[in-house]
Design a protein that fits this description.
Elements: H1 2-23, E1 28-30, E2 36-38, H2 47-51, H3 56-70, H4 73-76, H5 82-96, H6 108-122, H7 134-144, H8 157-171, H9 183-197, H10 200-203
Antiparallel strand pairs: 1-2
Helix pairs in contact: 3-5, 5-6, 6-7, 7-8, 8-9
Length: 207
């Protein structure tokens, strides 16, 4: 049984990795709750690497990644699309733990996520007050102090699931995965924790 589960984990890892690889390094994904996740490799080291890219799309992906990694806002400014530029600033804010970068963001949704991510990074609930969306604000409070009971104050189902998922991963508590309203999300939660903790029992809960 254990051997079969390990084989399942390996297969899922290969499939998920292959999926993102096929999307191309320049692709960006907006999750169901609006969070922006760039899907790009990590081989880029410096701005010079970006200039050596052979296509504009590869350069854009490189600017984003290196901009955040080096906390260089000048690279964020090279991004053509405003949403990508603002998420670049949000990434720098989280990495540097400085909400000042969030203040430069014009999109309220992106700014909310920026505040959320910095608040979680430094576990400071006072930053959550700056969030406009009530659901995101409750999410921020819940995750910042790892209090899953606060997830119940959230109205949006996707946001509720994200709340339990974040806390489950931060605390390695697979029990919280069961609270997620969506079965696919629950399975992903079990998978993530199983992979992180090497706990086969979490993987066995995948339906």
């Amino acid at each position: 049984m254990k051997k079969w589960m390990w084989i399942l984990i390996i297969v899922l890892t290969v499939l998920i990795g292959g999926y993102f690889l096929l999307r191309g390094i320049n692709q960006y994904i907006f999750t169901s709750i609006g969070e922006f996740n760039p899907q790009s490799p990590t081989q880029f080291k410096t701005a010079a690497d970006c200039e050596n890219m052979t296509t504009d799309e590869m350069k854009q992906s490189c600017y984003y990644e290196v901009g955040i990694a080096t906390e260089d806002t000048s690279l964020c400014e090279k991004l053509i699309k405003l949403n990508e530029k603002e998420w670049c600033y949000a990434g720098i804010a989280e990495k540097s733990k400085d909400i000042g970068f969030c203040e430069t963001i014009s999109n309220s949704g992106t700014k909310d996520w920026c505040y959320h991510n910095v608040a979680i990074e430094i576990e400071d609930t006072t930053i959550c007050v700056k969030i406009i969306s009530s659901d995101k604000k409750n999410l921020c409070y819940a995750v910042a102090i790892n209090d899953a009971s606060l997830c119940e104050k959230i109205i949006d189902d996707d946001m509720i699931g994200h709340c339990y998922w974040e806390i489950a991963l931060r605390t390695n508590n697979a029990i919280l995965c069961a609270e997620m309203p969506n079965s696919n999300s629950r399975d992903q939660c079990y998978y993530d924790i199983g992979k992180e903790t090497k706990d086969i029992s979490a993987c066995e809960k995948i339906t």
